[in-house]
Structures are given as structure tokens and as C-alpha cells.
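Weekly structure sync, notes
Attendees: PL (lead), two postdocs, one rotation student
Agenda item 3: pending single-chain targets
PL asked that the sequence for the first pending target be pasted directly into the notes so everyone works from the same version. It is reproduced below exactly as submitted, 107 residues in total.
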Amino acid sequence: AWTSPLAALRGETREIVQFSAPRPGPVRAVVDLVKQGVPIADALARTPEATSAELTIKPGDITDKQLNDAAFALPQGETFGPLPVEGGAVYGVHVKSITPGEAQPFE
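Predicted structure, written out during the meeting:
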């Protein structure tokens, strides 16, 4: 049986911290702090303008395609942002953990 590389994504889940603000500055501040070695929770605590949520997601769960693609392109432990999305908010994402999907071969 042949296995498509895309099949490996089936069932993959990621635990992420999604954070946002009405402008890029606070999101950039969180990203910069994390890149300096500050834990994501501490970086968010130091940036009160940024709001956050911890989410467990599968591909396609985030309705904004660019944000969804960023969440699934990053390796575990990486942080990305700022990313303006439709509606005016600016987002960032931090990948806490990745649970790989099981490859499903084509018969």
C-alpha cells in the first residue's frame, strides 16, 4: 500500500497558545520575549495588551487560513507573529506540543 505524505497529517493535533491584540506591537513583544528565552506564559504576563487562549487544534480548525497554516508549519516550541487577520485583529501563535497523526495508506 502506498502512503501519501499528506496522509500523515490525518489525525495530527497540536496544543497551541494563540494570542492577539488590536495592533502588532503587543504581539511582536510577546514573540520577541519568547525568542529571548522567556516562557510563553511569562511573556504574556508581561504584555497585558495581548489576550491569549490555549487550544488543541487539528488542521483546518482555525478559520483564518494564514493563521492555520502558520500553526501547522511551526515546529514544537516555536512562536510566530504578528499576523494581521480579517477583522483587524493581529495574532501570534506558539506551538506547545505536537501529536502526530497516523499515516493512512491508500489501498
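Discussion points:
- The chain has three helices and four strands.
- Strands lie at 13-21, 51-57, 79-84, 90-99.
Action: rotation student to compare against the earlier draft before next sync.
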